[in-house]
Amino acid sequence: MQKISDDWKAEFPVFSKIPELVYLDSAATTLVPACVVSRISDYLSFEHANSHRGLYKLSADATALVDEARLSLAQFIGAESVNTIAFCSCATEALNILAQSFTDTVIRKGDNLIVSIAEHHANILPWQALCERVGAELRFVGLNEWGQLDVAALESLVDEHTRLMALTQVSNVLGVLDEVAPWAALAKANGVKLLVDGCQAVAHGPVDVRAMGCDFYVFSGHKMYAGSGVGVLYIRESHVDSIQPSKLGGGIVKTVGRQVSSLIDGIEKFEAGSRNTAAIVGLKAAVNFINTIGWARIKAQQKTVMSCLIKSINERDYLSTFIPAQEESVLVSVFAEGVHSHDLSSYLDQQNIAVRAGHHCAEPLHAYFEKNSSTRISLALYNNTQDIQKLMCALDEAHELLAI
Amino acid sequence: MRLTNSWLFKMQEHSLFQQQLLSHHRNPVGFETMLSHAKEAWGHNATCGDEILMQIDIQDEHIEALAFRGDSCAICRASASLLCEQLSGKNKEYFAALFHALKLFFEDETVMPNSSCDLNFASKAQLPEALSPLNPVSRYPIRKQCALLPWQTLSDILYTEEGCTRAG
Q1: CB-based contact A254:A199 (threshold 8 Å)
Q2: What's the pLDDT tens digit per position in A59-113?
Q3: Which residue of chain B has the CA closest to A358?
Q4: A237-287 residue pLDDT tens
Q5: Beta partners for A259?
Q6: Do B51 and A372 touch (CB under 8 A)?
Q7: Minimum CA–CA partner of B146 in chain A
Q8: Per-residue pLDDT tens digits for A213-243
Q9: CA-to-CA distance for B87 and A316, rounded, in angstroms?
Q10: Partners of A262 in the β-ladder
Q11: Whole-angstrom Cα distance, residue A287 to residue A376?
């Protein structure tokens, strides 16, 4: 097991180069620890080959690395077998692969799909396109006062033509960890498939897709300290054979003729083309990093920093939030009275504080709350209460300088 | 507003929020001014959520009055304020030349003197003095679209058939 210091910030090289950096945009992308960087570097330097292709040792070893990563990720999210884990470039690709793979046998004209008003655009646009393609209806379910999905409203939207619910486990704007079990129960009772977007969940607590009861689960590696280039599409094993992949090409074929080809069985049929093996081994290294620290310590740290943030926000009359902030949240989006979110973000940037301003790829959610934009503060394991103190000092200055 | 030494330091020339720009942000020219005979159009910046309604009262190429309203950032407001301040009483050709200069400044290309209007500048990355409060924005590429939004919206009113309605 690798050794990780108690100062988690020290594990991330960027803070050596920019010690004054206060990085509060982990919901956009997390920073990358040295152990992941070095694993990717070692792979590219000494182990790189095209996996699942060559018969020589270097390629066979690369294949083994992918297989090991697949097992690691299956264990990480509590999947029933490795035959459920497909690697892709990111969650957006995973969602598009699924949406385009749903043929007329799955979704037909007159059917409906349900998403929440809190979805990221990546979990809206592919379904909009699918509905337009087949003549189905896209329905939106709202939220309760705590920013969680309104389960009663969800129940009222489900009917005999509902085929899929595609719902986020944690909103990238509201940051609340939602309860998936009620959705899964409703889906199962009505013969509806459930897709869960886990992008904002995987870095903040354990995931168990079997306990969750979902049919599909997607997330991106760069949301959990792995860097860019890899995502995971979990497909419940009982569905793998019945869904035909939309992304086609080399590596997924049994035979190819001039007019007709046959595809391989199993989850790897969703991985056409050459894999980003460097990113895949990096993702496994990120899983090891998280497992070495342990969820208990990560969640305790998160609660401490989030509590500090919430207390600081509540002490300031000029700051408000979409919903009452909670200690279990992984991020908070705020409004500063009289200051546009873009100006707030720019002023903070000049103090080496990184936050996100705008609608965060969640325009329908902002419209739902009748807001144009917000400033998002998102946490990760390299943040501490000193970061929050610097943030609040800069927010106070920005408000004093810019408020109208 | 009481300015401490730290804030004054932060407002030095490398800062985005300099005094001239803040002045236009806090007291914008033409903001929520009512124009009864004006063409108008909305401009949106999808990335940051800026929304601005530009209005222009133009008679035979002569700009009688300008106004704007909306929920927009300090850069967008200040830019709109400068636009209203500089273009009142001018003509379409003057607007076109000023807008062209602004776009080239942000695109960092060489500006060629090509207008009959008296905007005599020929070197790279120089703004006319009248728009100098926007100088710091060039150091923050992500904010350029905020500064350009009011001008692009007005250009859409003057030079396109779409999205232009008559106020009042």
Answers
A1: no
A2: 999 999 999 999 999 999 999 999 999 999 999 999 999 999 886 668 999 999 9
A3: B48
A4: 999 999 989 889 999 999 999 999 999 999 999 999 999 999 999 999 999
A5: none
A6: yes
A7: A342
A8: 999 999 999 999 999 999 999 999 999 999 9
A9: 41
A10: A255
A11: 26
Number of Cβ within 10 Å of residue A309's Cβ equals 25
Distances (CA, A) of B135 to A285, A359, B45: 45, 27, 20
Closest among A140, A133, A153, A144 to A114, alpha carbons compared: A140
A357: chain B residues, CB-CB within 8 Å: 48
What is the ipTM metric for this complex? 0.79
Q: What is the pTM for the complete model shown?
A: 0.90
Q: How far apart are CA B143 and CA B73, in angstroms?
A: 10
For residue B6, what is the nearest residue in chain A, using CA coordinates? Answer: A397
Chain B residues whose beta carbon lies within 8 Å of the beta carbon of residue A372: 49-51, 71
Distance CA B111, CA B99 (A): 12
Nearest neighbour of B146 by CB, restricted to A342, A366, A402? A342
A139-148, A155-164, B154-163: lowest mean pLDDT where?
A: B154-163
Query: Which among B15, B50, B72 has the least Cβ separation from residue A350?
Result: B15
